[in-house]
Design brief:
single chain; mainly alpha; xenobiotic transmembrane transporter activity; 403 residues; 16 helices; 80% helix; Bcr/CflA family efflux transporter; Growth Hormone, Chain: A; disordered N terminus
Length: 403
Amino acid sequence: MNNASTTKPDIGFTEFVAMMGFVTCFVAMAIDLMLPALSEIGLDLGVSRANDTQLIITMVFLGVAVGQILYGPLSDIIGRKPSIYLGFCLFIIGTLISIFSTSLEMMLLGRLFQGLGAAGPRIVTVAIVRDHYKGPQMARVMSLIMTVFIMVPIVAPIIGQGILAIAGWRAIFIFLLLMALGIVTWFALRLPETLPSEKRGKLSFKTLQNSSKEVLANKVAVAYIVALGLAFGSFLGFLNSVQQILQELYQLGTAFPFYFAVLAIGIGVSNILNAKLVVRFGMKPLVMGAQAGTALLSLVALISCIWLGSVPPLWFIMTYFTILLMGVGLLFGNLNALSMEPFGHIAGLASSFVGVVSTLIAVALGTIVGQSFNDTPIPLMLGFVLLPGGSFIITRWAASQSA
């Protein structure tokens, strides 16, 4: 291993990446399994306004944002593994609430708990990777983990559609419950604790305050965090809207998961390519190229969409989404690594801060984009012009400050 790494994981590299990917995947699983079932859940729970079913997606991300406040500092104090165990427990509680939901409000409460739980694996996984790697090697590992993470959307909606057809939407949550139990068992048995007791901090308000001030004082890192939030917000707007666009506007019905899988393949391929490209070209040029390309592509698509009459042909929207998501796939791992780079000595708290701020930004902006759905893809396209465009401007400033 080259000098970009710190220590080697005790398990093999391939198993380490696969395990971290599966531990992280609960956000994606909790979302993508549900996509084909949103309309049926809304009907069963008596949801009167179609756009309100988007909240079943949004509440998971809100829970993730709030939960991340806890897990980063906690993992620096009690260790990585106990923090992840806590996350799995909350996720399981949320899944049980969702299984027995009889109203939209009860469902949203369960989804909030699922998000609170999923925040643990999402945040602490980054800290575990930072315990072992830094710089381009960390970006490479994070990109490979994101490849496992992002491959979930290829199969999850298909699995969800199959379960929905056989046993109804509540069985999808039962599947999530069994999956959580299996993955936490694998994690418990195979991965040793990565933060030795002598390197752990103490539970003290002063420590948290000083660490928070250190993160906030780094203006370049904060800029990357905001840039990540904007990019993530555009993607959340996509997740909020895609089921209504493809399944309802284009009337794909039960074929929707297969079209969604095609889109997920594009973002998965871009993550695989990123693992190689980031070592050759560097994180900053790659990120700025993807941000600018995504915004310009969306501007062209927006103009074309208006010219074609608001609802373009299916081939047009699928081509646009595929290229768009390939660009998005180059952003998350790299922006996360750029945000975390200065904070190896407080990786847990820094990871928490990055996650909280970027996710809250994304939830706010992604909800606005999703709730603007008006039976055309125009609001989503406009979101992808403005948010990645703003992300590019901020990243360019940050790159100039650290040149």
